[in-house]
Design a protein that fits this description.
Elements: H1 2-18, E1 20-21, E2 24-25, H2 58-67, E3 70-77, E4 80-86, E5 96-97, H3 103-115, H4 126-129, H5 138-141, H6 146-151, H7 186-195, H8 199-211, E6 216-219, E7 224-228, H9 230-241, E8 245-246, E9 249-250, H10 254-260, E10 276-277, E11 282-283, E12 292-293, E13 305-309, E14 313-318, E15 323-329, H11 343-356
Antiparallel strand pairs: 1-2, 3-4, 3-15, 5-7, 6-7, 8-9, 10-13, 11-12, 13-14, 14-15
Helix pairs in contact: 2-11, 3-7, 3-8
GO molecular function: hydrolase activity
Domain Beta-lactamase-related: 72-217
Protein name: Serine hydrolase
Length: 357
Amino acid sequence: MKHMYLLLVLVLGMAASCSSSDDGPIAPPNQTLYFPPIGSNTWETVTPSSLQWDESQLDPLKDFLIQANSKSFMILVNGRIVMEEYFDGHTAQEPWEWNSAGKTLASATTGIAQQNGLIDIDNKVSDYLGENWTNMDLEKENLITVRNLLTMTSGIDDTKQLVVKSNLTYVADAGTRWAYGNVFQKLMDVVAESSATDFESYFNTNLKAKIGMDGFWNEGTIFTIFHSTTRSMARFGLLSLNNGSWDGEQIIDASFFTECVTTSQSINPSYGYLWWLNGKSQYMVPSQQAVFPGTLIPNAPADMVAAMGAKDQRIYVVPSKNMVVIRMGNASDPQNTNFAVSGFDNALWEKINAVIN
């Protein structure tokens, strides 16, 4: 019996030593949240079969992603890579634009500035930028708080997306109207002024470097856009899945991050602090004041929150499944380059559900 036991141990040990991939060891599915090492390409993986996913539906999902002009796609479960695909000549080393999905980076950095004692989101923006930063009467300008910028309730005209003073005109009192616009980038100025450095330097030191992201901010047509590799986008998704904590270090204050992914105002319940929220009773979309009944993405899990950018750049975070899903690429429908939610989301989640359910 002793010899049989030793033989079993030897066989199991050999099997474990053979379980590896180019990107790192294959881990069994478990509830322990894994964080990939800083400064390393090593990233633990887990197989779809070990999660009891329907592998026959993987190719239909990949075909859909190709047809939808995707460049990359990833699924993490418990921080481990289950799927990592690149299309149309794109590679794991190449950066791609986040577009408005990068608003969540501005939100996170604003929260870090608050926990570092530099700002208070309930203070008016003019406390940091000085008076007359808008083209509004001072009485109306002084109603706008940092929180209003985080929640898209500044009351500033949203039809002019280029953020220059002449375009920052009054439409409604702050807090009384939800309208999706690029004035959020004034948060970057608030962080820069309060920290006496430029926004990118503050972001790099306090967020990017701490979770091992690559990437850079680049001046776009109407606002500054973050670019990174797919894995760096996934790192931020993993940080978000863990309520702003990375491998034991609280990068973003947990209570602030909870506010980020909770309904932030009563006008559009499907919006937090620059995050989109699924599973609510109604929602609004960019460029409209209409309120639509029902959930934002019916096919997606109700607890999902999302960073959404033009041309269908996506981070989906699903706490109930310990899952992060990343999609980067060109617009799924070149005729419809919505700033945020589009029909692509529901169609994609139909394909994902066929795999994971």
